[in-house]
Amino acid sequence: MSNQLHDSSKIFGGTASRALAQQIADVSGQKLGEVTVSRFSDGEFQPSFEETVRGEVVFIVQSTMPPSDNLFELLLMVDAAKRASAKRIVAVMPYFGFARQDRKDKPRVSIGAKLVANMLTAAGVDRIMTMDLHADQIQGFFEVPVDHIFASTIFLPHVQSLKLPDLLMAAPDTGGTKRANAYAKHLGVDMAICYKQRKVANQVESMTVIGDVSGKNVILVDDMIDTGGTLTKAATMMMEQGATSVRAMCTHAVLSGDACARIQKSDLVELIVTDTIPVSGEKLLATPKISNFPWHGSSRT
Asked: DSSP letter string over 211-270?
């Protein structure tokens, strides 16, 4: 991101990503801008920039994981910057929430990702920076430029440093085939695919493995880990089919519900995640299998 910064730019962080924004500002050699969020007794809140942004390129760093207050805070900050005469407004969304709602997969449902894109555009954003979208087509939902960043430049050096023999990359579902194939091609190894069926969201009904994992050190790669059900079940199946070891790399550590306990009890040797979503120290201490990497060194398409 540093190549987009210049003397007339400022970086601000939302409540959900203040620590990450500080790291980005430090790497960019800038001071993090001052912003406060006033809260009313009924839960309503109002962000306020505590320094001028007139004529500035304003970068607002905020991941939009639940609760939806994180998204609305970002929208309010964009609106505030626009009304304060910012020259350009760039929403830096390391984790783009509602990205799983990228299409109508059954009748009478919303396309939440498109709605979020419409709201950000209406608020006045001029550019979006985000990381490892759940679906590439979300870039097309915007009428403003989208910089899509990948975690591969963080994950690949780690994989290479492991120097694992008989390495095999795997996708935990058919939707992740393209991602796993990109890693496999770069590393010059084979890949496998898990085919899963669901009855309801977050609950895998059945799963099969396509490909030979016998004697392989498998690395599952995905854009996010939510409840951990898919990854842990995939790890178990691969070990049952003769895999030597199974690791996983997921950009966004949603880790909802009993995900941490499920991961710790699973056949996974290691789960590598980035800090697009803050992972609490308590979760890291309770789940030694999780390795946390910073994302701000990632590459852009």
From this structure: S--TT-EEEEEEEEESSSHHHHHHHHHHHHTT-SEEEEEEEEE---TTHHHHHHHSSEEE
Q: How far is CA 236 from CA 7, 231, 258, 263, in A?
A: 52, 9, 17, 11
The 10s digit of each residue's pLDDT in 124-166 is 999 999 999 999 999 999 999 999 999 998 899 999 999 999 9
Q: Closest by alpha carbon to 254, among 97, 131, 116, 137? A: 97
Backbone angles phi, psi at 183, to 5 degrees: -65, -45
Active-site positions? 196
Model pTM score: 0.89
- Give start and end residues of each alpha helix (H) in the chain: 18-28, 69-83, 112-123, 152-162, 177-187, 229-240, 259-265, 281-286
What is d(CA 92, CA 162) in angstroms, rounded to the nearest whole number?
31
Q: How far apart are CA 301 and CA 278, in angstroms?
A: 24
Query: What tokens does 35 get?
Result: 């912003």
Instruction: Encode burial over 63-81: b for 16+ CB neighbours within 10 A, e otherwise.
Output: bbbeeebbbebbbbbbbbb
Element (H, E) at 59: strand 57-61
